[in-house]
Amino acid sequence: MPYPDVSTRLEWKARPPIHPATVLDRKPDRIIVHHTSTPNSPDMSLDHAFRLSRDIQRFHMQGRGWADSGQQLTISRGGIVMEGRNRSLAAIRAGKHVVGAQVLGHNSHTIGIENEGTYMTEDVPDALWGSLVEVCAWLCVRYRLKPAKAIIGHRDLNNTDCPGDRLYERLPDLRTAVALRLDPQAVLPSPIPDASDGPEAFTSDDVNGTVPPFRLK
Ligand SMILES: [Zn+2]
Question: Are residues 55 and 110 in the same domain?
């Protein structure tokens, strides 16, 4: 599976961290989906995405007093994927875990994705959704995680609205989309070629597994 194109800190011109991030020689067991609670900007450009990363870093360092950006990864509304906290990209590639600051009490075992926007009532743009699926699939491969168990929302662990009602409602869709991305055969049943089977023997609506996959003779 190809890795998603992740823009580095050098590209978005991150400032140096107060101190280097802690890297644990183990994998995280949960992928946390966040929204940034920033406006739903119509600007899908690279410049806007890089500015977003700098704004988040400034807020986390100056506003929160943290050593660096809290989240390991950021996705703009235009679908641009960016490294967040320092050392995150190298750690992911090595199957290790950078300890972030994104879920109170659970940073030692979770990796966080900040998705630009506010998704209480509005749905995420298709470009962002596509990148979120790719990033989650990449993390599931690198860390050998099962999407159904690993992908959760910030509100599952802390008392928060994050990642918004709309995005939170779509997490089951996200888990299914990621599972399909990893292995189309795992979720989508493969039809058995049989001339006597009518078209009703298999329907493409069976992806959720709620309908018996196909008729066996
Ligand atoms: Zn959050």
Answer: yes
